[in-house]
Design goal:
Blueprint (H helix, E strand, L loop, with lengths): L1 H32 L8 H9 L4 E4 L6 H11 L3 E5 L3 H15 L5 E4 L5 H12 L5 E4 L1 H4 L2 H8 L3 E6 L19 H8 L5 E5 L4 H11 L5 E4 L7 E7 L4 H13 L5 E5 L3 H13 L4 E4 L5 H12 L5 E4 L12 E6 L6 H8 L9 E7 L1 H15 L1
Parallel strand pairs: 1-6, 1-7, 2-4, 2-5, 3-4, 5-6, 8-13, 9-11, 9-12, 10-11, 12-13
């Protein structure tokens, strides 16, 4: 009888805890993020993390991956570590969390762009327990002084964004991602891991799971169908002048609409951005050859709608949270199908119209084939 009463009490307490969690989830979703309801598998993913499970998420670009770690980080005791591959991505997400919460201490990032004084300011906030989300570059996480500092903190979970970067079979492999498991083990072996990506073939999935030792992870795969996106492949004119006229005409037929034009080379990015500006189109370039300050300024101008078009290499866009991109043009054929899906997925993230136009030519295919052949030699 005593055992029965204790069991009954545990069930009542568990139910009460679940009710409180339900209320908190909805309250934080509305109060902090301004949403009335979750999208797709977001709620189930968040509950999985809050329950302490390793969790593997494959969700299309625009599906709301960032909420899956931002909300549970705010709800949990301690601080969540978010591994992110790009400085621009970190800045964009930290700014958004701070704006939504009205609290500048709630989120920080650690990467090579910060001065020693700025790093100290970040660590001071962390030590005071005011920071719930710490975005960090994979190279920074692997440093001994970072590991020693984080080992002294209460870590709620690790979120690894753009997790396909772990796999050598992926389209955007980064060697530093393969050292994450060792760093995590040295910081906190018991904290759950959340991995997120918009594109991972079965082979890439298995590589990620094996590398991060996530054999018991809960897997969430969302539909990749984006019915609001319109895909079109156009023959690429042999005459560059004709191609440029076509692109300029398309942009001018869609005035005041945000768009991204992807090119394979930095030189072409610069030339096309300049050509658009000459034709009274507010455009800026973005590529890895620009200094960090210029890249950040150009990105911010695009996000704040001071410019309509960004002409970029694939260095731009990973994790950029601009919901109203209305068109994505591929001046050159993309390097991979996975990359193409991610790049075009930056259109219409608000559920509105998204035009995805790709220019195709046999010469571009031959050029890519030669590029990959030379690379493998």
């Amino acid at each position: 009888m005593i055992v029965f009463e204790r069991t009954k009490l545990m069930i009542i307490q568990s139910d009460e805890k679940k009710k409180n969690t339900d209320v908190n989830l909805q309250e934080i979703l509305k109060k902090t993020f301004g949403f009335d309801q979750f999208k797709g598998e977001q709620e189930a993913i968040i509950r999985s993390i809050l329950s302490g499970n390793d969790t593997f998420v494959i969700m299309p670009t625009g599906g709301g991956k960032s909420l899956c770690y931002q909300l549970p980080a705010i709800m949990s005791e301690g601080m969540a570590i978010v591994v992110s591959p790009l400085i621009a991505l970190m800045k964009n997400q930290v700014d958004a969390v701070r704006y939504n919460s009205g609290n500048d201490s709630i989120a920080h990032f650690l990467n090579s762009s910060l001065s020693k004084v700025q790093i100290k300011e970040v660590k001071d906030d962390v030590l005071l327990g005011q920071t719930k989300l710490l975005y960090i570059a994979p190279e920074t996480l692997s440093k001994e002084d970072t590991i020693e500092f984080l080992r002294q903190q209460s870590i709620s979970f690790f979120a690894i964004d753009e997790a396909h970067c772990i796999s050598e079979w992926g389209h955007d492999f980064r060697p530093e991602y393969r050292r994450l498991r060792a760093a995590i083990d040295n910081i906190n072996q018991t904290a759950p891991i959340l991995t997120l990506t918009a594109s991972a073939t079965p082979k890439v999935q298995q590589d990620i799971i094996k590398n991060l030792q996530m054999e018991n992870a809960r897997l969430f795969v969302s539909s990749f169908n984006r019915p609001n996106l319109y895909y079109e492949v156009r023959p690429k004119p042999n005459d560059t002048l004709t191609l440029h006229k076509e692109i300029i005409r398309f942009i001018k037929e869609n005035p005041n609409k945000s768009g991204i034009i992807y090119c394979l080379t930095r030189k072409r990015v610069e030339e096309l951005a300049e050509l658009l500006r000459i034709n009274d189109i507010k455009a800026l370039p973005y590529h890895a050859g620009l200094d960090t300050k210029t890249r950040n300024e150009n990105q911010d101008k695009f996000l704040m709608e001071d410019v309509d078009v960004v002409v970029a290499t694939i260095a731009f866009g990973m994790g950029i949270d601009k919901p109203d991109v209305r068109f994505v043009i591929h001046y050159d054929i993309p390097k991979s199908l996975e990359g193409y899906y991610q790049e075009t997925g930056r259109a219409g993230r608000d559920g509105g119209e998204g035009r995805c136009i790709t220019y195709y030519s046999d010469q571009d295919i031959e050029r890519l084939y030669k590029f990959f052949s030379d690379k493998s030699m």
